[in-house]
Amino acid sequence: MCEREGDPHSPVVFGIRKVLLEGAELYRAEAANQETVKKYSRGTPQDWIEHTVYKRFPNGGVWLLIIGSLFFLGAPGIIYLGIQLISMPVMAAGIINGLGHHWGYRNFECDDVSTNLTPMAVVIGGEELHNNHHAFPTSAKFSVQPWEFDIGWMYICIFRALGLCEVRRVAPKPWGSSSRQVDLQTLQAVLVNRMHVLRDYTQSVTLPVLKTERLASQGNDMLARARKLFVVRPAKLDDVSLGRLTDMLENNQTLKRVYELREQLTQIWEEANVSNEQLVEQLKQWCSDAESSGIQALEEFSARLRAFMPQPVAA
Q: Is residue 109 part of a domain?
């Protein structure tokens, strides 16, 4: 699991210096773990080329790169090789899994500490939009904000226009018109767009209410420094931060209600072995609780949630 014991490339587990400078070594060490290989190699080819070439000559690709560079580029190929062989382990294994889980900004509160590192994304094929990737891991497009640029997506669009590739999936976007009764379609739209839902909750409910309560409690230093405590999922907070958060919630019923409803909402899409009918009823009850909370931001958010519909499929 990401950011937990057993993750072979997390700065939370190994520290940022280890992952940034020795990320490739961590990958090689984990590749020798047969349990990991067995677990994550399901569905990968086990054919002639795998057994005869890749397993027999694990460094064959590196030697082909060296020979090809020198053959086609001559002496300048040495410079190219130096840049390639030094930069790739650092860029791919180090920066993506190191800095991309340590420093940067977050569009979505995933169950990990992944971050976005633009403008580095221009150099590493868009992969540095890592928080976006963790939020929507099956999306061919890593950028989600208008100002984010994914150079990999640019090439995908070119190849698609030439008929050389097909885009199967991109990140969903919330879609709806007017508020209505919660039904199975509402549930499906909320589940698919859960990262957008959580982000909207933070921006339109948690932070505005926190700001209002902070202004109403002039001189409350704890509330003034509480933004991170109310935005980050509780599993990512240390014991000291959890203690501070608990104290604030016990002393402010409005913030406590906002926080409780956020956790109840996330519980809906984290439920396992629960029927769709039960989940629909849970979502209905959540909207009812939000609308009867007496907190305007919650009431407006619930109305937007009720309007959610599955995104139309393009013809």
A: yes
Flag whether pLDDT at 116 surpasses 90: yes
The residue type found at 275 is: S
129-187 confidence digits (pLDDT tens): 999 999 999 999 999 998 899 999 999 999 999 999 999 999 988 887 777 889 999 99
Phi-psi region of 219 (alpha: psi -120 to 50; beta: other; left: phi over 0): left
91 is a domain residue: no
* pLDDT(315) > 60: no
Q: Provide the domain count of the chain.
A: 3
| C-beta separation of 194 from 262 below 8 A | no
Cis bond before residue 146 (omega within 30° of 0): no
The pLDDT, as a whole number, for residue 314 is 46
- H helices of the chain, where? 11-14, 16-31, 34-40, 48-49, 60-73, 76-88, 130-135, 151-161, 184-192, 194-201, 207-216, 221-224, 227-231, 239-250, 253-270, 276-291, 296-306
Written as six digits, the tokens of 203 are 């921006």
Residues 153 and 219 placed together within one structural domain of the fold: no
Residues 207 and 292 in one domain: yes
Establish if 249 belongs to a structural domain.
yes
Q: Do both 275 and 219 map to the same domain?
A: yes
CB atoms within 10 A of CB 175: 14
Q: Among candidates 176, 153, 202, 111, which has minimal Cα distance to 307?
A: 176
**Last residue of a domain, which of 125, 141, 171?**
171
Separation of first and last alpha carbons in the chain:
37
What range does the domain containing 263 cover? 176-309
